[in-house]
């Protein structure tokens, strides 16, 4: 159960990071609200997962999922440029996250 919550929390990290960028310094209400809700839920899920998973592994997986999804979404929507090297590096992050899960 902790792993499922951790993955969902990592997804929510990508949601709040994207919403933060779209809030334009908290001047847009919708993205600002999404940021706040996603941030709270993401942190709560991370805290829950850390009750039964190692802190370092939990944090690395949470950040890795959030970072990979955030940049992947930005590239997919055209708000960030994409390249083969960038895609390979993001896949490297995903591979490391999978490796941490496999080792646990």
TrEMBL record:
Q: Note one Pfam family from the annotation.
A: Multi_Drug_Res
A Gene Ontology biological process in which this protein takes part is:
response to antibiotic
Where does this one sit in the cell? Cell membrane
How does it sit in the bilayer?
Answer: Multi-pass membrane protein
What's an example GO cellular component term for this entry?
plasma membrane
Q: Where are the transmembrane segments?
A: 33-50, 59-78, 84-103
Q: Which InterPro entries match?
A: EmrE-like, Small_drug/metabolite_transptr, Small_multidrug_res
Q: Which domain of life is it from?
A: Bacteria
Keyword Secreted among record annotations? no
* Alphabetic keyword roster: Antibiotic resistance, Cell membrane, Membrane, Transmembrane, Transmembrane helix, Transport
Q: Which SUPFAM superfamilies match?
A: Multidrug resistance efflux transporter EmrE (SSF103481)
**Classification via Gene3D superfamilies:** 1.10.3730.20
Q: Which GO terms describe its molecular function?
A: transmembrane transporter activity
Metal-binding listed as a keyword: no
Similarity comment: Belongs to the drug/metabolite transporter (DMT) superfamily. Small multidrug resistance (SMR) (TC 2.A.7.1) family. Mmr subfamily.
Task: Kindly provide the name given to this protein in its UniProt entry.
Answer: Ligand-binding protein SH3
Q: Which organism is it from?
A: Rhodococcus opacus (Nocardia opaca)
């Amino acid at each position: 159960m902790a792993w499922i919550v951790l993955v969902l929390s990592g997804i929510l990290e990508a949601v709040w990071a994207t919403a933060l960028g779209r809030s334009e310094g908290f001047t847009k209400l919708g993205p600002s609200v999404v940021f706040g809700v996603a941030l709270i839920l993401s942190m709560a899920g991370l805290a829950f997962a850390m009750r039964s998973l190692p802190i370092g592994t939990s944090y690395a997986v949470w950040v890795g999922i959030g970072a990979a999804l955030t940049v992947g979404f930005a590239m997919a929507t055209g708000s960030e440029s994409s390249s083969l090297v960038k895609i390979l590096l993001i896949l490297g992050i995903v591979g490391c996250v999978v490796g941490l899960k496999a080792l646990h």
